[in-house]
Automatic annotation (TrEMBL):
InterPro entries: DUF7869 (IPR057191). Residues 1-13 have a biased composition (Basic residues). It holds the Pfam family DUF7869. It comes from the Eukaryota. This is DUF7869 domain-containing protein. Residues 135-265 form the DUF7869 domain. Signal peptide: none annotated. Residues 1-20 are annotated as: Disordered. The lineage of its organism: Eukaryota, Metazoa, Ecdysozoa, Arthropoda, Hexapoda.
Amino acid sequence: MPARKRPYIKPRRKKEERAKIRYSTDQPPIKPTCGHNTKAYQCSKLNSNDVLFFNRAFYATNDKIKQDNFNLKYVISTAIIRRRPKIGNKPGRLMALKYFIRKKINRALIPVCKKAFLGILNLKKGRLDGVAKRHYVTGSIAVENRGGDKKMHAYRSRKEAVEKQDVCSTCLQLREEITVEKKGSEKIRLMADGCGGQNKNSILLSALMNWLYMNTQNIKSIEIIFPVTGHSFLPPDRVFALTEKQIRKMETILLPEDYMDVLKEHATVLRLGTDIPIFDFKTQSRNVLKSTQSFHFQITKCKRFIITLHRGAVKIRGEMSYYSDTGVAKTINKRGQSFEKLNPEMLLNGVPVNEAKLIDVRKLLETHFGQIGPRCRN
């Protein structure tokens, strides 16, 4: 006998209709009248077609979560740099928000004020602030936390237990994992150690772009991630803490080998210049790459860089968000320059020391250890 047909529930239909009305609009978008025409706000550059195009792109769906994720693409949250004195009991701001509108013709991002952004999308500031705050605190995209299918979550553990006991499903899962391993990875993800100002280093970008162009076979892209300074915990932080704790207990450290012995207890030590050769990418990159002011993205505001190799051309795009991809991949080479011409020389190990510095160090050693021999003087 055929299975019994599931009855249609009318209240669910009414609920969906109310949600559809709630997250749609019958009002036309409001064109900005503020007249901003500065570097921070360029509201006057938007015409009626741009306003209508952006409004229709937002209301192309009546799903709240998709609309919130649409807002996250064009609302960038950054940390507060300058703290002003508090007035009364009013708390300070958690973050700073920047709003952008995409034009219809050239798809360029135009920075606008908050009033203009809310007027174009016919939104209230409470909804927009809540989505931006949750994204800034958690770092994740918008998710649905209201209601949901409670039965599916209640019996999920039982369903997973049955699948694990099923021999056939286990074999299929193992077969799929082996297939994925054989395919090999086509992407490399590099994570910085969280130091401030690392994303300003264009020399690192030139070295990675050169490696992707010259030495790769199956790798198609490289992603570099710079975590928020002071708000990210990385595995190397534990190694640094254990090393610093042990070094503080040592009264005197005279030789570099003393540091090496401590580091070898917690990590693998590779000597720069001996185990790892040093190449002069700084000098060569100036001849091949443009200046950072000529990049098609602001290098100091980007949290991620994605380098791709397509048809022999190396392109890069900068992203100001960890999850949303809004940038455009372009080349940053100078006109007529290629990575084939980038041939960095290997630098010699060691740095020449100033004579005045040597005299100061010699006096310090003689103060603590007395007269030193000719071998130490050299």
